[in-house]
Specification:
It contains ten helices and no strands. By secondary structure, the protein is mainly α.
């Protein structure tokens, strides 16, 4: 299974799965927090505030250690799956606040224009308002996704997954390299890999903004 994966490939796998899952969930939470239905608004708000108020490291530890006390052993998902769920929920809570800020940045006239066209509330949101809101906060969204990718290193410390940071330590523990003080080089190489992917995500975000004309009239 995926628990047999290791190294940088595991970091990429955790990040990609979490990004794909957290984005739509974050959008739904943002819409839920602005909902006129009290129950939906309260549930979305409580979820966002609860998750944002808890340290990611603690949530990973809880998923790794404490989940077995509440769920039968044969039903407990794999460690990688638990890590993806935690990263997804944690990032979705932050993404929801970013999208909510984008929704607040859309001029009131856009809502009125959509209503004047006779669109239903759902079509107003998904065809007129939401695309503008997401477009307005692209930099903040990409910044949060980059942070998610870098946070995958915590899965090794909190959950024992053999991701890149654990690999850098395992290399220097081998007999051929023990005592040579190469931990600096291995950590620097690991940091370079993280930086390369983060930089690529940032550059692609800038190109995407240019294509959409963000910041221009």
């Amino acid at each position: 299974g995926f628990d047999d994966w290791g190294g940088f490939m595991l970091n990429l796998f955790l990040a990609v799965c979490s990004i794909v899952l957290c984005y739509p969930l974050g959008v739904l939470l943002a819409l839920g927090r602005r909902s006129t239905l009290p129950l939906v608004r309260i549930v979305a708000t409580m979820f966002i505030e609860l998750i944002r108020g808890a340290p990611l490291f603690v949530l990973l530890l809880f998923a790794n250690v404490a989940l077995g006390f509440f769920v039968p052993e044969n039903l407990v998902p794999s460690t990688s799956s638990r890590a993806i769920v935690v990263f997804t929920l944690f990032t979705a809570a932050y993404m929801a606040e970013i999208v909510r800020g984008g929704l607040q940045s859309v001029p009131t006239g856009q809502y009125e224009a959509a209503k004047a066209l006779g669109l239903s509330p759902v079509r107003q949101t998904f065809l007129v308002v939401l695309p503008q809101a997401i477009r307005n906060v692209i930099p903040a969204q990409i910044g949060q996704l980059i942070a998610l990718f870098k946070d995958t290193a915590l899965a090794g410390v909190a959950m024992g997954l053999f991701e890149l940071l654990q690999v850098t330590q395992a290399i220097t523990a081998q007999e051929d390299f023990r005592g040579q003080g190469l931990i600096g080089e291995t950590l620097a190489f690991g940091a370079l890999l993280f930086w390369a992917v983060s930089y690529m995500m940032s550059r692609e975000s800038q190109r995407f903004e240019q294509r959409l004309g963000v910041g221009t009239r």
